[in-house]
Amino acid sequence: MTTTLEVQVVRVFTDAEGWHGNELAVVFGAARLPGELGVRLTALLGFSESVFVDDEASAAFRIFTPTAEVKLAGHPTVGTAWVLGQRAGKVPETVRPRLASPVPAWSADGLAWIRGSVADAQAWEFVQLADAAQVDALPVEPGPELAPSDPLAQRARHEYWAWIDEEAGLVRARTFCGDFGIPEDEATGSGAIHLTDRLGRALTIRQGRGSVIRTRPAAEPGWMEIGGAVVNDGFRTVML
Questions:
Q1: For the chain: N or C, fewer Cβ within 10 A?
Q2: Which domains, ranges and CATH numbers included, belong to the chain?
Q3: How far apart are CA 217 and CA 131, in angstroms?
Q4: Which of 9, 12, 10 is nearest to 212 (CA)?
Q5: pLDDT, tens digit (0-9, with 9 covering 90-100), for 16-42
Q6: pTM of the full predicted structure?
């Protein structure tokens, strides 16, 4: 049986000019839709994640990668908070991913923000490099000259990063997600949450082609705040 979905597409963590950002598919009124459709939709669109909004009033939603439903991911949660805010006229105070703790949300200075639990965010392996140029030079697929044990060869769920300006908290990062069927993620909120937790300070992370993620430790231990700009790319009709 063919299912037709009306899908809103937004880009999360754009730069100041509204370029780049990580694409997110959002489906409303999805409470009766099986999660298998969320996985298929994400894979079909070639996105890293899609969201099924089950109930707008309570801001309840599910997050899907091309392979599975996940607990908490940064760009889907920030994007969902922003989209619901656009539809209701105000970002909801709390958004509720089905498999994770409720997430406080708000907007400030044109950015959408959430406060997420580090424990709920997808875990990543981190590899620090000497400078941003080394991060830029990484190929999406490692060459055969690298042994599988070499840190530069890892592409399963690995974030490579380097300081651009350590004093200013400015980071260059790229994330490879083979375990989730995503060769490279444009902007990885869960990775940003964990990196901020590791470094214990506010960061501005430039990831992918030019996306910008802003983070800072929350007052509550074990929680991080993550925000960014979001741009609406309109609706698509998708048949699955």
A1: N
A2: 4-105+229-239 (3.10.310.10), 125-226 (3.10.310.10)
A3: 24
A4: 12
A5: 999 999 999 999 999 999 999 999 999
A6: 0.96
Residue carrying structure tokens 């309109």:
234
Query: pLDDT per residue over 47-101, tens digit each?
Result: 999 999 999 999 999 999 999 999 999 999 999 999 999 999 999 999 999 999 9
161-170, pLDDT tens digit by residue? 999 999 999 9
Query: In this structure, are residues 178 and 155 in contact, taking their beta carbons and an 8 Å threshold?
Result: yes
**Which residue type does 45 have?**
L
Q: DSSP secondary structure string, the chain?
A: ---EEEEEEEEEEE-TTS---EEEEEESS-TTS-HHHHHHHHHHHT-SEEEEEEETTTTEEEEE-SS-EESB-HHHHHHHHHHHHHHHSS--SEEEETTS--EEEEEETTEEEEEEEGGGBPP-EEEE-SSHHHHHH--SS--TTS-TTSGGG--SSEEEEEEEETTTTEEEEEEEEGGGTEEEES--HHHHHHHHHHHTS-EEEEETTTEEEEEEE-SSTTEEEEEEEEEEEEEEEEE-
| Least confident segment among 106-110, 150-154, 229-233 | 150-154
pLDDT at 1 over 80: no
User: What is the spatial distance between Cα 222 and Cα 66, in angstroms, rounded to a whole number?
Assistant: 28
- Give the CA dihedral 66, 70, 73, 75, nearest 10 degrees: 40
Which residues are CB-contacts of 44 (< 8 A; sequence separation ≥ 6)? 238, 240
